Every structure is written in structure tokens, then in C-alpha cells.
Amino acid sequence: MENAPDPTNHIASSLSGSMDRFDRTSVALHWLTVFLIVVQFTSIWVRELMNHQSNLAELLLFVHRSSGIVVWLEVVVRAIWRRYFAHVPPFPSNMPNLQQVAAKTNEYGLYILLLAMPLTGVARTVLLGQPFSLLFWQVPTLVEFDPALRSAFAQAHEIGATALMVLIGLHAGAALFHRLVLGDDIMQRMLPMETGPRLKSDPAE
């Protein structure tokens, strides 16, 4: 006669998954970043589909610029929290070193781009040599129009946007791979709601 499954194993597994999650502040900051990035890309993509002289296009550009500054401030706060206060669960012991290095490289690359992109965007705007709105401020003309330098920052901004999309795709793809293929709890560590680790099926069933 087969032994009945021990319910304490499920409880212990759930507790282990709970203890191995990022802290709530880190989770909240992560998903705030996701939301702001969606706002960033959506606002500029929609603007490209319409007349740039329209009022809606101006509003979308204002949203894009302002949310970019919020991204920069939020990532600075997130980096400080991560460095000094966050609970960062270790990688699974069976995760290959190469995958760990790739995950860390992807994470650092995202931080760098999320800090650099708003700066190149602001520089691109300032070098137009015109006043512009940003969050709650009306920024006056700061420098004269410099087409060559503005073009350089514009190109850097576009390259950065492409690189950011690639890194985001790799980051999301890796999380889904761990969840759907490897069946570990890497993805659950940063989910807003705790789901616990996925349990493997009992071969004896």
C-alpha cells in the first residue's frame, strides 16, 4: 500500500519559498519600474503614429519626458535600497555559474541603461534651444540650439532604447524559462503575490 503524502512537506516547501523571496519594497520598486517603462515606450510609440504638431502629440511627449525623469529617480532609490537594505535571496545552489553571471550582467545592464536613458533624453531636449515642460516645471532655454551635439545624443538615446528592449526581453524570457521549463522558484521571488514554488508531480501517482 502506498504511503499517503505527508502534508508537512507542502507546508515546509511553502515556507521555504516565502523565505526565499525579495523583500516587499524591492518587489514594489521592481513592478513600479515595469509600469514606468511601459508608459515610456507606449507614449513615444503612439506619438510616432500621429501628427507631431497636434496637442495629443505634445501631451504624449510631455508624459514621455516626465516619466523618464521619474524612472531615473526611482532607479536611484532602487539601487540604494538594493545596496544597503534589501533582502536579496541567493541563486539556487544547482544554478550553473554561467547562468548566474548572465543574470547579474543583465541586471547591471538594465540599471545602467535606466539611468543613462533619461539623461540622454534630457540632453536631446535641452539642446533644441527651446523651453519645455517637465513634470511640474517649465524649463527655460538653457543653451543655444546645437544640431550636431543634439544629433549625437538623439542617436545615443535611440541605441539605448533598442538595447533596453533587448535586455528586457532576455530578462523576461529567462524568468519564464525558469518557471515553465526548469520549474524552479526564480520567477516567484519577484512576483507581487506570493505563489510558492511549483511542486513537482509525484512519480508514484
Structure notes:
With 205 residues, this protein is mainly alpha-helical. The chain has five helices and two strands; from the N terminus they run ααααββα. The chain has helices at 7-19, 24-47, 55-84, 97-126, 147-182; strands at 132-134, 137-139. Strand 1 and strand 2 form a beta hairpin.
Summarize the structure.
This protein is an all-alpha fold and about 200 residues long. It has helices at about 5-20, 25-45, 55-85, 95-125, 145-180; strands at about 130-135, 135-140. A hairpin with a 2-residue loop joins strand 1 and strand 2.
Q: Summarize the main sheet.
A: 2 strands, antiparallel
Helix and strand sequence = HHHHEEH
The number of helical elements comes to: 5
Distance between the termini: 12 Å
Rg: 22 Å
Structural class: mainly alpha
How much is the average pLDDT? 84
Q: Strand order within the widest sheet?
A: 1-2
Structural shape: elongated
Q: How many extended strands? A: 2
Helix content: 55-70%
